[in-house]
Write a structure and sequence with these properties.
Elements: H1 3-51, H2 55-59, H3 63-100, H4 107-136
Helix pairs in contact: 1-3, 1-4, 3-4
């Protein structure tokens, strides 16, 4: 085996590993988005359903924390849905680029990543606000 064959074999290994990492990244983002969507919907539904039974919670001066938490949960849900839509646009854009042979930076992917990050931040903030509210009640 000469030097060229070794380099070609090494390049193929690197390409295969890179493809594997992109697949892992995509699956991780998918699981994160589904988790945020599921948990945000569940937390929002539970807190709204049971708040009427907790008169002291509604009359609490800290009730605004729970309302802010609800807003963050709704934002997280909306951002995940937006991320799904922009993710489809990013895939379409990549397919067009693949056909044309270009590999430019993709605006749709950056928007998708920003929506994912924002959804995660909203969800974490909602959890923090909910915990603080429950601690104060």
């Amino acid at each position: 085996m000469d030097k060229q064959d070794q380099l070609r074999g090494h390049r193929e290994d690197v390409d295969e590993y890179t493809t594997h990492l992109w697949d892992l990244r995509a699956r991780n983002k998918e699981h994160l988005n589904r988790s945020i969507l599921t948990l945000s919907t569940a937390l929002l539904g539970l807190s709204v359903a049971f708040i009427k039974d907790l008169r002291a919670a509604v009359e609490s001066p800290h009730f605004c924390l729970l309302k802010a938490s609800w807003i963050c949960l709704i934002l997280a849900i909306v951002l995940v849905l937006i991320s799904f839509w922009f993710g489809l646009k990013a895939l379409d854009s990549q397919l067009v680029k693949q056909d044309s042979g270009t590999n430019d930076d993709d605006l749709w992917m950056r928007i998708t990543d920003s929506a994912d990050l924002s959804a995660t931040a909203c969800f974490v903030l909602a959890l923090i606000l909910t915990v603080i509210f429950l601690w104060q009640v």
